Amino acid sequence: MDLKALFDKIVHCVLKSYGERILAIIVFGSATRPRDFVWGLSDIDVLLVMNDKIDESGRSIEESVDGFKVSMVVFEKGEVEEAAVAGSPLVHWIKKDSIVLYYSSEKVLDWLNSLSPRITSYTLEVFRRSSVVAYGIAADYYFQRNGRRVVHHLYHSLRHALRYRSARELNNIPVSNEEVYAAAEKLCGREVLEVFRELVGLRRGKRVEIGVADRLLEEVSRVIGGIVELKFPRWIYVKYLLKNIGDPAIVSYGIEKNVVRVVAFLIARRKRKYIRVVI
């Protein structure tokens, strides 16, 4: 199935479920860029714009359409306008990186075209936080011995970091991989560019050796702190500490002031019970 056929099915399913409540159905992210989309790995990201209020329980929806994971976020029209004023990356994607699959009227399409999000401190904070969180997911997959998923989330982590840096220094958000390459070379140099290129290439493969994933976790940890202006722990140090304490079960990364903290739940080898470790 090609993406166009998949988009048609998504529109059919959404309209069948929500009917006249839907003002617009918009796909954004890598699904709009066939060169960046990886079949079997990339999600289909969709924004549903509604004409009435939404229960918080229905804010985020995940569906499977012909075996593809479709991640939908649901906003009321006024919330989209508020997000544009705040500088939400979501509205930047609507303007720069989207396909409107359905709109209920020409008036709605004119309204979408009128949105004019700015790059704000909130924009920067979302990119920086997303970069750190994605790195944590990559680290968690390392302990699950899933090399391809490590690389996939490292790709997102470094891409978010480069978008942060470009938005802050150039007042521009690179969208495609090609645009991110250009930003990486201009702002960070060849080393960061080559790491990002390797991640892009590896995530298209069917399998990534865990040793390769381990090396890339270290390489990204070495450069990413400087890009997002945070004190970022080196992977070799984090891995050594966690493995010497126990068997990691859950690993996550977060920001505390200007320092990246690692929170892990492990099975301690001596006591054989779960413990929480903060690095």
Can you give a write-up of this model?
- By secondary structure, the chain is of the alpha+beta class.
- 52% of the residues lie in helices and 22% in strands.
- It has 10 helices and 8 strands.
- The chain has helices spanning 3-18, 77-86, 89-96, 106-114, 121-143, 147-170, 177-187, 190-202, 210-228, 235-245, and strands at residues 22-28, 44-50, 60-65, 68-76, 98-103, 246-256, 259-268, 274-278.
- Strand 6 (246-256) and strand 7 form a beta hairpin.
- The model has no long low-confidence stretch (mean pLDDT 93).
Q: Which key features would you list for this structure?
A:
alpha+beta; 279 residues; globular; five-stranded mixed sheet
Characterize this entry briefly:
With 279 residues, the chain is an alpha+beta fold. The protein has helices at 3-18, 77-86, 89-96, 106-114, 121-143, 147-170, 177-187, 190-202, 210-228, 235-245, and strands spanning 22-28, 44-50, 60-65, 68-76, 98-103, 246-256, 259-268, 274-278.
